[in-house]
Amino acid sequence: MTFTAQIGNVTFPDIIYNSSGPRCTTPEELVALGNSESSAIMMKSCSPEPRTGNPEPRYKEVELGSINSIGLANHGYKKYIEYATDLKKQFPDKPIVASIVGFCHEDFLQLVEDFQNEPNVDVLEVNLSCPNVVGKPQIAYDFETSDELLEKIFTISGNKPIGLKLPPYFDPVHTASMAEVLKKYPISFITCINSVGNTLIIDPETEQPLIAPKWWLGWLGGDYVKPVALANVRAFYKLLGDRMRIIGCGGIKNGVDVFEHLLAGASMVQLGTVLWKEDVECFGRIQKEFYEYVENKGYTSVDEVIGNLKEL
Ligand code: RRO
Question: Which of 75, 96, 176, 204 could make a disulfide contact with 79, Cβ separation 3.0–4.6 Å?
Fold first, then answer.
């Protein structure tokens, strides 16, 4: 059994792929994703110019997850256009997804336009929740700015599906406010959630924080964040599920976690911390676990699962 998925005019051969961030910055990492069971090749969020990112140490793993403050280290978007051209030749059946970040509206618009014109990129994920640039708030926590930016983005012509990477919302009023903004635009999907921001992990042995940048605060992924991710997937599925796809991201490390995200309302899922920890072998393992689990439960199609949480 396999489940394919459709986003706009793009077919994904399966429902599990990588999130933007872990192991998707260099050409070598992107080729490894192409050779893996990941159903797409998602590239690291890219900015107009290359960035070295924040000082090390900027990523650490712990038993229950990971903390990062990478600071948008990337090779600049023009390189990702080149990488996509090579990747498409090698992996013609895998959708290639560009993740886009800017420091002002003009940046976003430039990148959306250039990627729309790039035949080897299939899908655009606009990262409205880029957290680690010192002095800059996340756009998606500012509903007015999000609205203004989206209005401009959706005047750019092009036929590639555009989705958004959203941060976690912790207050239902915020979720509803963002949903009202998103409803106004032909958004193909939203990815819920980016890492949970402004967290501190302390090593009691060394009596130090784990990472160096930004007052040692970082962005949390893994087991810690799964309930937050599921809540955001569920809330947006209820609010927007009839208009756009929800992609689940947060705390998925086995097949049962995939099933839970689908029940909450995700049509597809992305792997983050588990990819960092386990490398690309995680895709085949989690896919196998997921299909065994749903087959044992008697499901024959993904549509029977998506959103069908048995509410109390
Ligand atoms: O590069 C990062 O520090 C980073 C980004 Br752009 C993001 O969207 N999410 C995250 O956890 N780290």
Answer: 75
105-135, pLDDT tens digit by residue? 999 999 999 999 999 999 999 999 986 566 6
Q: Which atom of ligand 1 is nearest to the CA of 44?
A: 6
- C-beta neighbour count of 120 within 10 angstroms: 17
> Which CATH architecture is the domain 5-53+71-196+225-304 placed in?
Alpha-Beta Barrel (3.20)
Dihedral sign (CA 3, 292, 257, 68): negative
CA of 110 from ligand 1 middle (Å) equals 20
Q: Is the pLDDT of residue 2 over 90?
A: no
Pairing of strands 123-127, 162-166: parallel
Point out the ligand 1 atom lying closest to the alpha carbon of residue 101.
6
Note whether 196 and 223 are within 8 A (CB): no
Among candidate residues 24, 46, 104, 130, the one labeled active-site is 130
Distance 25 CA to ligand 1 centre (A): 12
Q: Which residues contact 104 (CB under 8 A, 6 or more apart)?
A: none
Whether 130 is a known active-site residue: answer yes
Cα 22 to middle of ligand 1, angstroms: 9
Is the separation of the CB atoms in 129 and 100 below 8 Å? no
To test ligand 1's pocket by mutation, which of 67, 70, 134 has the most ligand atoms within 8 angstroms of CB? 70
Say yes or no: CB of residue 66 within 6 Å of ligand 1.
no
| Residues 6+ positions from 224 with CB-CB distance below 8 Å | 64, 65, 196, 251
Domain range list for the chain = 5-53+71-196+225-304
Q: Is the pTM of this model over 0.70?
A: yes
